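ok new one. same drill as before - structure tokens go in, u give me an amino acid for every spot. 287 of them this time. try not to just spam alanines like last time pls lmao
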């Protein structure tokens, strides 16, 4: 008798009987008679040529063969049930790996991820933060959100938002900043983008100032340093609205200089997956 002739009903009867160690309770679970369960178990025993249960004074117990077979049958039914649940939920989970520059992640993306997950529960997001130096291919990223002018080679770039820069400082420093020239008296915290401060100072008419201060590879950390009074940072105020509203951070000058924006990028050679498409559509709709 080939294995293909062992019916699911036979295996289901054995599975229930093995869990309950009682044919009557197994029959109640399966909504059949006790005789039907006994018949199905006997058919399986005949097929494999081994007894699966042994009757004792205390009731049914599994034989060695039954104890070996029971977990394999239970696991198989479990896998079938889990796969059916996946189909009923709309399909298998799809992983989406995104590299995100830290400032954008903290200042915009994180507080909106709940909305995306609610709309697309079958997409499993994996977020990797970076300091704007990212390699889509080497890091196996589906997307990278980065700051710049959008002119990266071999990538498709969707503009997300402008991110003009302005000096940001701790509230207690405000009294020292009445004119851009006053920045010469303070430590100017710098990012790896060496042209940012000179661009703002020129626009403010204070180009005689030479920025000197600690160098940071992440704007979010640089602004944290400014908040504790370590100096003045140059960063996008739009990404720190919460801190500005709460009075933990101050913007001493209204002038903002546009030196770049945030972009959603992917390799041109990267095939667009359904998860990538829904994330792109969603993100462009909320920026």
């Amino acid at each position: 008798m080939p294995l293909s002739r062992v019916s699911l009903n036979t295996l289901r009867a054995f599975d229930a009987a093995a869990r309950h160690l009682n044919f009557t309770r197994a029959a109640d679970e399966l909504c059949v008679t006790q005789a039907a369960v006994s018949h199905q178990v006997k058919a399986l025993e005949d097929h494999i040529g081994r007894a699966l249960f042994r009757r004792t004074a205390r009731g049914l117990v599994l034989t060695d063969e039954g104890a070996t077979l029971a977990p394999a049958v239970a696991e198989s039914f479990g896998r079938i049930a889990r796969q059916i649940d996946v189909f009923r939920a709309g399909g298998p989970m799809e992983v989406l790996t995104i590299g995100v520059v830290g400032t954008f992640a903290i200042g915009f993306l994180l507080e909106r991820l709940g909305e995306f997950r609610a709309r697309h529960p079958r997409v499993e997001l994996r977020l990797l933060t970076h300091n704007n130096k990212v390699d889509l291919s080497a890091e196996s990223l589906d997307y990278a959100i980065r700051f710049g002018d959008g002119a990266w080679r071999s990538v498709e770039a969707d503009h997300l938002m402008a991110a003009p820069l302005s000096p940001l400082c701790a509230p207690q420093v405000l009294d020292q900043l009445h004119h851009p020239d006053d920045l010469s008296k303070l430590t100017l915290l710098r990012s790896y983008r060496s042209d940012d401060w000179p661009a703002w100072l020129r626009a403010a008419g204070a180009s005689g100032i030479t920025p000197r201060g600690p160098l940071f590879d992440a704007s979010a950390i640089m602004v944290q340093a400014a908040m504790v009074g370590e100096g003045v940072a140059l960063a996008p105020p739009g990404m720190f609205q919460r801190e500005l509203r709460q009075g933990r951070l101050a913007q001493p000058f209204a002038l903002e200089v546009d030196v770049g924006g945030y972009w959603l990028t992917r390799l041109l050679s990267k095939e667009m997956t359904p998860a990538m498409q829904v994330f792109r559509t969603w993100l462009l709709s909320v920026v």
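The longest helix spans residues 64-88. and btw The longest strand covers residues 94-101.
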